[in-house]
Amino acid sequence: MIETDIKELNERIQRESAFVDMISMEMGKVIVGQKHMVERLLIGLLSNGHVLLEGVPGLAKTLAIKSLAGVIDAKFSRIQFTPDLLPADLVGTLIYSQKREEFEVRKGPVFANFVLADEINRSPAKVQSALLEAMQERQVTIGQQSFKLPDPFLVLATQNPIEQEGTYPLPEAQVDRFMLKVVIKYPQKEEEKKIMRQNITSTFPETHPLISPEDIVKAKNVTRAVYLDEKIENYITDIVFASRFPEDYKLGKFKSMISFGASPRASINLALAAKAYAFIKRRGYVIPEDVRAIAHDVLRHRIGLSYEAEAENVTTEDIINEILNMVEVP
């Protein structure tokens, strides 16, 4: 019975996920390389999660997000985070109308399908936390009223690496609300030449709308239906527990290096992101490779390092690699 159900589900997902290739091709006109980043943006979109992109300036982070909004024909807004930004600049405020002799609501740029929080670590905590309600509750409170945000609603935040001056590191509680933290690398030599050619011609390629926000809402429901076996559930829990109790998984050497392990949000997001990854690969069920493929992006911002780890140059990437090597694959 289950086999026939999975077979039907598989066929359904192959039909429903056809638009993924179309989106990738359309974005490929504008974004050279960066396949990993485009894939992760789609995973965030399909699993209702927010994405934090980290990389040096100039790696097409903003362009990728803008292009994705264009392909989906969705409302897009970009907020440049600066040290003097106020929460009202983000969510909106009450403005007194002399004509009507009453206060009226002026909605902020957060009321969009795609919100690009550019250089989020350039703003102080009060502005960063204004995004929290929007991200978690998908609503915003202005004065006495609460307003629902549109669906799909996706916050894509970019941050320059923390070592730079004049930045405010995001607190752990806020970083945890991002489903994925994607680290963006420099392009390859051939890709760089292509980027250079593209930017010195008189006409820059543009993306065209292919699907609507309603199609994405439908696809999100289909993604939830992807089959996740109990063995995979156990595998996900083992990975998360290995970050909390390394000594139980023959990783005792990391005990003093991890100040805190991944939160329960890690397990939820590993499961959701693995389902979305399977959907993108046009499969109706999750396999261990799906979990391994997205493990770094889900876990890298959820494991705290102690001073000892920093002294010995051990990174979260090293710890995640070791966990994936040691935890038994079903």
Please supply descriptive tags for the structure shown above:
330 residues; Rossmann fold; Helicase, Ruva Protein, domain 3; 2 domains; five-stranded parallel β-sheet; two-stranded antiparallel sheet; 14 helices; 15% strand; globular
Question: Topology, please?
Answer:
Elements: H1 2-16, H2 18-28, H3 35-46, E1 51-54, H4 61-71, E2 76-80, H5 87-91, E3 92-97, E4 102-107, E5 114-118, H6 125-137, E6 139-142, E7 145-148, E8 154-159, H7 172-175, E9 180-183, H8 189-200, H9 213-224, H10 230-244, E10 258-260, H11 264-280, H12 288-299, E11 304-305, H13 307-311, H14 316-326
Parallel strand pairs: 1-8, 1-9, 2-5, 5-8
Antiparallel strand pairs: 3-4, 6-7, 10-11
CATH fold category name of the largest domain: Rossmann fold
Q: Which percent bin holds the helix content? A: 40-55%
Shape: globular
Q: Please work out how many helical segments DSSP would assign.
A: 14
* SSE ordering: HHHEHEHEEEHEEEHEHHHEHHEHH
Radius of gyration: 21 Å
Q: What is the name of the CATH superfamily of the largest domain?
A: P-loop containing nucleotide triphosphate hydrolases
Largest sheet: 5 strands, parallel
